[in-house]
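User: Please predict the structure of the protein below. I'd like the answer in structure-token form so I can feed it into my own downstream comparison script.

Assistant: Understood. Taking the following sequence of 360 residues as input:
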Amino acid sequence: MKCAVVGAGLAGATAAQVISHHPDWEVEVYEAAPHVGGNLRANAIDNVLYEPYGPHIFHTESAMAWQWVNRYAVMLPYQHTVKSQLADGRVLSWPPQVEELKALPEWRQVAAELDARPSQPSALDFESYAIEVMGPTLYRWFCEDYTRKQWGTDPHLLSSRFAPKRIDLRTDGDRRLFRDQMQGWVLGGFHRLVERMLVNIPVHIGRQITLNNLPDADAYVITAPLDDFLGQEPLPWRGIRSEMTYYPGVETFKLPAPVVNRPGMEVPWTREVETKQMAGQGVLGTIITREYPGAESRYYPVDDVAGENRARWRELRDELKRHLPNAELAGRLANYVYIDMDQAIVQAIHAAQRVTRGTE
């Protein structure tokens, strides 16, 4: 039996690795790009790492996902923190910390707004949900213009579906962005994890696979965008463009945190990233990456408040199943979702298990 995996990113590599261990199955991977790893790839200047496709941090509560990455990569201990530099120059923690906010002259107004919040946020649009979590002042400082820049639309037109993963207000002093107990960074960059999973698995680089040029196989795992794969009108995505600046001779770091959000309209970028901090590098020099939103790339699916884009994806999924009933989906691109790496891994493992289940 043979399985063809479309896409050599994290989900595709994970699925291929699982299938490769089954005695009744062979697997081959097809990747349209000139390299494996997708957006996980890190590059270097004078041995200083940077991530041209945005920062990646592995964090999870899933023992399955944690054991998986540690099997194929050297994980460095790391706890991720983020700062926000407001339009007036003040640098504050993200998510906002109540104890930190109490020292600000605006605290009385902020406190009154927090007292007026509902017991549980329930709004369907992103803007209303965020205001229910943190009140209008903090929303204006941290989120409003950042969201306009990032998504290129009014925040009230976006669904609150993804808001719980992005919006928080801390009262417990936990300054980590993610509360997961298991967190880390792959030595050398996260693309090393993908490369190690694909060792001894046939990978066809530079081969864009669609429904019209499928390789012969008994089953398929699709991690590519379904609109591309089916030759249909593109679903809307929001992309970013990165600009890197190299600072030679810097002994430590330039930013106050590995990631610094810039929520105001005074600058056109949304955040600055210093990968050296995440990678635990002690080398001379550092690189700051600025992210500019609006590029023609597939980073974030656009979840509109009406749910039209999600409904369109479901139509594409159903069309795929009609044409290719022996196909499984895995990963953010195929499923039109914004997910973390541990979720992509678990999705891919389960997709691979569904492929091989019929022969067990």
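That's the full token string. The chain has twelve helices and 16 strands.
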